[in-house]
Amino acid sequence: MKVRRARRSRKTFIVFVLFANFVVSTVSAQSSGRHLTTIDALRRFSGYFHLQNVVLRGEFVENARRVSLRGGDNEMQAMLADGVSTMSGPVEVRGQLIDIGRLTPSDPRLGRYENKPDPDHWPKPGEELVLSITSVAKAEPDSTPTIRAVALEPWKYEGQSISLTGQFGGRNLFGDVPAAPARDKYDFVLRTPEGAVWVTGMRPKGKGFDLNVDARVDTSRWLQVSGVVKNERGIVTIEAKTLATAQAPAARPVVVEAPPPPSEPGEIVFSSPTDGETGVSGSSPLRVQFSRGIDPPTLNGKFRLTYIGGTPPAGTTDVTATYDIGSHAVVLRLSKPLEPFRTVKLELLEGVKTFDGAPIKPWSVTFSVGAN
Predict the structure, then answer these.
(1) Integer angstrom CA distances of residue 335 from 25, 78, 208, 223, 366
(2) Model pTM?
(3) 20 to 30 Å CA-CA from 368: which of 64, 144, 148, 188?
């Protein structure tokens, strides 16, 4: 008896499989190799921050065998490195976020964790987080608002009108922050080597400047932004009232902190477009961000873009690919726009490796193109 295979309801047409060499950029997301953030953001975006170097401000709370760091209205368990002790009053700490569920019970990084869960009831990713603290210092009060100060303690400035100066970061082109406020198509990041915030409410355009949120070439510009601070769902924003050009400050040395070698697979933690997104511009670059550094040659031939359903695409499409070392992000720019009103699937195939040889999990995102 012959078995007839069921006919697929929708055909797929490959737009490209990327074999071109990647252009590697060394512009860092945050030049210090660490993220200045809050406990609220760590909890909401644990997949992004897992095993990343972070800087936070808060106060220690001790209760029996449990030590926690409280920042604003949020609190997180802390695990102190050898030779590190708590301190009373406001502190600034450096360390790494550990998502217990993303490690195995035998992982040596949990050796000092006294509240380690039962291996038979191991938490899922995101369920139990601990801050591994490597240094503690007294938090010096900030005399004036800066991006650094607002990124570390947004609750102190929430609702206030302030003025900040920083480098234009486009639509998170360097992966400085884990997510976007998604309020307007002109939302952009204002960044420095020590921190970043989103700017909403105004297009980056004014006297002598008209910046494109998707153009890396515009990220050499510095802006002064005045507006109201908001802190919602772990995302710090400035609702802009005025914008003006500014001069870049004199460069100063920043200590680079290398993260310890992780022992687990890497993954994609951010993409633009997002899965299920509709009305996507066919001419916008495609971006994906990895949880940690990638070995660039392993990316060749590992991205595949396909149309789902409809007719075969007309002609060929060339692609320019850029990998940014600092933000662990890949940007794909197509030689011609994606066809309007088509459903598109972008895939990362098996075989990509991190800088230390760990595999990257295969991944895909499906989105719909709007009218070009």
Answers:
(1) 20, 49, 30, 31, 20
(2) 0.64
(3) 188
Read off the pLDDT of residues 136-195 as tens digits, 9 standing for 90 and up: 999 998 889 999 999 999 999 999 999 999 999 998 888 888 888 888 889 999 999 889
Amino acid letter at 86?
A: T
Q: What is the DSSP letter of 248?
A: P
Q: Which two tokens stand for residue 259?
A: 């993260």
Triad 179, 216, 233: Cα angle to 5°: 10
| Tokens of residue 210, six digits | 């008209």
The H-or-E segment that residue 166 falls in is: strand 161-168
What letter represents residue 323's amino acid?
A: Y
Distance, CA of 266 to CA of 332 (rounded, Å): 20
Residue-wise pLDDT for 333-353, tens only, equals 888 899 999 999 999 999 998
Residue type, 134: T
Domains parsed from the chain with CATH numbers: 12-27+264-368 (2.60.40.3710), 35-138 (2.40.50.140), 147-246 (2.40.50.200)
Contacts of 251 (CB under 8 A, 6+ apart): none
b vs e for 114-145, b when ≥16 Cβ sit within 10 Å of the residue's Cβ? eebeeeeeeeeebebbbbbbeebeebeeeeeb
